[in-house]
Design goal:
48% of the residues lie in helices and 13% in strands. It is built from 13 helices and 10 strands. The protein has a 4-stranded mixed sheet with strand order 1-4-5-8, with helices on one face. A 4-stranded antiparallel sheet has the order 2-3-7-6, with no helix packed on it. Its main location: mitochondrion. Pathway: Lipid metabolism; mitochondrial fatty acid beta-oxidation. It comes from Magallana gigas (Pacific oyster).
Amino acid sequence: LVPSGADENMATSMLTNCVRLFNKQLRNVSRFSTSIKRHGEGRPEVSQAATMMDIGTREIFSSEHDMFRQNVRRFFQEEVVPPHSKWEKDGQVSREVWEKAGQNGLLGVNVNEEHGGIGGDVLSTAITWEEQMYVNCSGPGFALHSDIVMPYISHYGTKEQIEKFIPRMVAGTCIGAIAMTEPGAGSDLQGIRTNAKKDGSDYILNGSKVFITNGWMSDVVIVVAITNPEAKSKAHGISLFLVEDGMKGFVKGRKLEKIGFKAQDTAELFFEDVRLPKESLLGEENKGFYYLMQELPQERLIIAGMGIASCEWMFEETRNYVRQRKAFGKTISNLQTVQHKLAEIKTEVCVGRAFVDQCLRIHNERGLDSATASMAKYWITDLQNSIATRCLQLHGGWGYMWEYPIARAFVDSRVQPIYGGSNEIMKELIARTIVSDK
C-alpha cells in the first residue's frame, strides 16, 4: 500500500487513511442497538464456542463488529505483545503505541467522524477492552483515556474544549488522565481536599492526587477539586478542571511501583498555586460531583468488562497448560480433580459473561443505572480474583514464576476490587436501592 521511497510522514498518512477507510464500515455501528437481535441470530454464546475468545460469538455482536474485532486483535498481537515485557521494566508504555492506536482507530471509538473517530457504539468500544485482556497485556491505559476521560470532555466540555482536545486524543497525540483519588480520599470523593479558589476570572489550584493512571504520560488531566467549601455538603461544592502538562505549578511526582499493572504508569500529581483560566473549568462550577455520578457507571462497566475478559483468557490459558502438563504418569487434564476445577471455572465465567453482556446491551441503549453497574463491578472482580487463584494453582509452582503469563494475570487482578470504587462501596450503592422507599 505504501510506495517504495515514500518518507515516514507520507507512509504514516497513507496507513492512517487506509485504516480510516476500513473503519468507515463501522460508521453506522450506533444503529446496531436497535437491530442486535437480527444481526446476532444464530451466533453461539461463549459456553457453546470452541474457545471463549472466538470471533463470531455472542448475540450482542454483529458481523460488522467481528470485522472491527479482527483489526483490534491484530493490533494488540502485533503492536502490544512484543514490547510489553520491556514496558513492564520501564514502568510505562511508549508514546509510539499511543499514536499507532490512534492511526488504527482504537482510541475514542465512539467519537463522531467530525472529531476524528469512527462513530462506533458501546459494543465497539467494549471490543477494545476485551481484546486487550485477551493478550494479557495491561500496560496501555487506552480504556481510561478513551472511555472514562474523553466522555467528560465530550459531554460537559465547551465547543472550544472539545475541538482542542478530542481530535488529538483520538489521534493518540494527547494522553488523558483523571485525578480523583488523594492520599486521604479514595472511594469517598466527598473527602477530597484539593481546592481551586477564585482569583478574578481565574482559579488557583492547590492539592495533590495519587494512584493516577496515565498520570506520568498525561498531556491533560481532569482534576476534581473543591470550589465551594461553604456548600451545604461537599458534593455541592466540587468542580472539574482541565489541567495541561507544563502549566506552572503542576508537578508530576514519581511513577509508583505496583505489584501488578507494571507497564501502566501510575503517578502522584502535585498542584501548587496553579493558575487556571476560566476556560479550564469543565462544565459548570460546583456541578462536578453530579458529573462524576453520571459517568461512574460506565467506568465500573469497563472494569467488569475487562475483568470477565481476563477470566476468559485465564481459563483458556489454563486449559492449554493442563492439556500438556504431565504428572503421575499422565497428562493432568486426565485427572478428575483437575477436570472438576475446569468445569467449575468455565461455568462461573459463562454466568459472568452473560451478566456483563446484559449490562453492555442495556448501556448500549443508554439505560445502565448505578446499582446494576456496581453489581457487575463487584461481582465480576471478586470472581476474577477467585479464578486467578484457582488457575495459578493448576499451574503448580510454575504459576508462581513470572515467565508464565498466569502470574501476570494473578497480580493484575488484585487491584480490580479496589479501584473504580472499592467493592465494599459497590455493595453500599446496591443496598441503597434495595432498602430505599423510592
